[in-house]
Amino acid sequence: MIFVLGATGKIGRALVPALLDAGATVRALTRDPAKARIDPRAETVRGDLDTSDLPALLAGADRVFVLTQGHSADREAAVAQAAAQAGVTHLVKLSTTGVHFGQKDAITRAHAEAEQAIREAGPAWTILRPGAFMDNRFAWLGSIREENAVYVPEGDPASALVDVRDIAAVATLALTTSGHEGATYELTGGEALSTEQQVAALSEALGRSVEYVEEPESAARDRMARMYGWPAQAIDGFFALKRESAAHEHTVFDTVERLLGRPPLTFASWARENAAVFAHRLQE
Ligand SMILES: NC(=O)c1ccc[n+]([C@@H]2O[C@H](COP(=O)([O-])OP(=O)(O)OC[C@H]3O[C@@H](n4cnc5c(N)ncnc54)[C@H](OP(=O)(O)O)[C@@H]3O)[C@@H](O)[C@H]2O)c1
């Protein structure tokens, strides 16, 4: 049985059905089963990584997809150790390309420490290091709804955004086939697009011309606090990560194509396939 952490998140929502389609038995974790819309073919379990009895959650698991939010290496170390004791044979950890590039921001450092804990826990391991997700662009919904515009901080770099479905496909491979033990995979899309090009692709998919506006960091900070309700600490964390990743975000890795035998999904196809979701949410 494969135990999936983060089953309701961006990657988890794609990973659970992909594993089930590959014939695996899946246990999916969420803090709130009533709200979670997890594929009914999976066993859904309620649990909180900070407070639940980890050995009980992990009992009977052979493999674990380790994705945690909140960026605590201690939390992932606790999962890895409990998994080893429960007899888990393979851990597949979701990390970030930032570790490959040696970034020094707090999020990347926590992932680097967590990777180490996973490698040292005992079970076989595979590390997946994706770059920025295409799904992050759902954050543009608010300003498109209110002003038909996308605001980006000045100097925002071109980015080889990756589709979470490609990450889920690679995770499925690592969790259901052999040969990925001890491997570390950097995962990106196949092309780096500037934010202006991304807005143009989204405009085309939505059939409306969305304005692209660059603004100074101070204005971007105010917008994040106002529109997303982010606390100052989260905004600082975002810009710290951005400063560290800016020089690398354009880098394209060929791993997705090598492992999946097809090119990575493109931002244009992501925009087209999510156009209906955007259209629906723009009316909320
Ligand atoms: N976004 C990017 O561009 C990017 C790029 C590279 C790497 N990453 C990494 O991807 C990971 C996922 O981040 P995300 O922001 O995209 O989040 P996400 O996977 O979309 O959502 C977070 C998931 O974590 C679960 N979760 C949160 N707190 C939990 C807890 N205390 N106990 C159990 N489950 C908990 C949530 O489940 P419930 O709410 O159902 O409990 C949800 O399924 C992070 O490690 C991040 O660093 C992100």
Descriptive account of the structure:
With 284 residues, the chain is of the alpha/beta class. 45% of the residues lie in helices and 15% in strands. It folds into 2 domains: 2-133 and 162-187, NAD(P)-binding Rossmann-like Domain (Rossmann fold, 3-Layer(aba) Sandwich); 134-159 and 190-250 and 265-282, NAD(P)-binding Rossmann-like Domain (Rossmann fold), CATH 3.40.50.720. The protein contains 13 helices and 9 strands. The protein is globular and about 55 Å long. The mean pLDDT is 94. It binds NADP nicotinamide-adenine-dinucleotide phosphate (NAP). The site of NADP nicotinamide-adenine-dinucleotide phosphate has 25 residues, from helix 1 and strand 2. NADP nicotinamide-adenine-dinucleotide phosphate binds at residues 6-12, 29-32, 36, 48-50, 67, 69-70, 94, 96, 107, 130, 132-133, 136.
Topology:
Elements: E1 2-4, H1 10-21, E2 26-30, E3 43-46, H2 54-58, E4 63-66, H3 73-85, E5 90-94, H4 97-100, H5 106-120, E6 124-130, H6 141-147, E7 149-153, H7 164-176, E8 183-187, H8 195-206, E9 211-215, H9 217-228, H10 232-245, H11 255-260, H12 267-273, H13 275-282
Parallel strand pairs: 1-2, 1-4, 2-3, 4-5, 5-6, 6-8, 7-9
Helix pairs in contact: 1-7, 3-5, 8-12
